[in-house]
Structure prediction request, 418 residues.
Amino acid sequence: MSKSAKLELGEVVIELPIIEGTEGERAVDISKLRAETGFITYDNGLGNTGACLSNITFIDGEKGILKHRGYDIEDLCENSSFLEVSYLLYNNRLPSKDELAQLKAQIKEKSTIPDGINSLIKSFPKEAHPMGIVSAAMVALSGHYPHLLDPDLSDEQKSEIFPLMLGHLKSISAAVYRHGKGFDLIQSDSSLDYTSDFLYMMNGEKPNEDVAKSLDVLLILHADHEQNCSASTVRVVGSSKANLFASISSGIDALWGPLHGGANQAVLEMLEAIQSDGGGYEKFISKAKDKEDPFRLMGFGHRVYKNFDPRAKVIKGYCDTILEKLNVQDPMFDIAKGLESTALSDEYFAKRKLFPNVDFYSGIIYKALGIPTNMFTVMFALGRQPGWIAQWKEMIESDGARITRPRQIYQGKTDEKL
Ligand code: CMC
Prediction:
């Protein structure tokens, strides 16, 4: 028997269906609430709203659990590659050996970006932020693939567009980095795997195995995170039947903000500010606690995780390993660890359940790998792209897909006259 909830709104009593998720999450389906009672719901920041039904990613923020298609993130980091996780997100299962080889071959074929995209990248000032250029290049791809603009893609188009997006974003990201340095694009080396090829296209040198493996794990850790700001943006834009290039470009823009993916750049800048201020944490902790001061401890806190962020745990472990393997001594890592332990023992952070998130330590690894600070959020986008595409595909294919169009509670003037 299906469950329901009774809601009493003054005189009106309504029975609302309860939906249960496979991991035990429960929701009250309010989709008929307004039609039957005249009420709408109000949920600032949508923190209590299930905006879709999804089979892709599960998070238990209280227990610190993250799973993609049922697989624990730790297991995926340990035993799979970024491309396998990408395939898993898009196809709802891990690839066979042959399917993985086929995906790799398709991506290699799609690693050369159209000349027009390279010219567009070159038209930006060298100092321009890479995220703006990557977003522009992404939406500009729509002009080069007119046969892929209708979101009701055939099966053949679905298997064309996924490797195309992965191959092109890899090359666009590397080209944007090189443009900032004043260098020309390097063509992909088809003998290399995805992550090594990206590093090769950035630096012109084949990366060592530890470097490539660390970046691959970082990409896995960023691959999807259910209905976060950028994935929701991709879904919202896609819900109007805008094409995938436009939807992903919008996701890149949403990710850029410092409260979302841009936090990884902001963390390193904060650590540098602490260092140049003499290395004391107290001043920055006090600023973060001061409600009159807009400053926040970057890389701390999360809408969903009220315990540790499992991604941050994996990354912190990798920081130790990679810095040791590359023989890098980075004072930023010590500052980050000191800041973390000071914050965690402070009542303000404990009471609000604020823990380090994925962005807190990732920049230390990017830096050790030689990736400049203004490229950190591009790394996040490169990792998150398969998740965005999977979310978009799920939305497009879902039964009864509708344009996203929330309501509001108008609080402005009434009855003004000229
Ligand atoms: N420093 C200081 N105080 C904080 C912080 C922080 N980093 N994060 C939250 N708070 C406080 C906030 O002021 C509020 O206090 P009070 O209850 O007294 O008003 C309380 O904690 C709850 O915060 P909130 O803003 O209501 O929480 P939210 O769920 O709306 O925001 C967040 C989540 C991630 C935007 C926020 O924690 C934040 O701004 N963190 C810093 C930026 C950051 O690291 N972002 C990366 C997020 S993880 C990766 C990703 O999504 O890209």
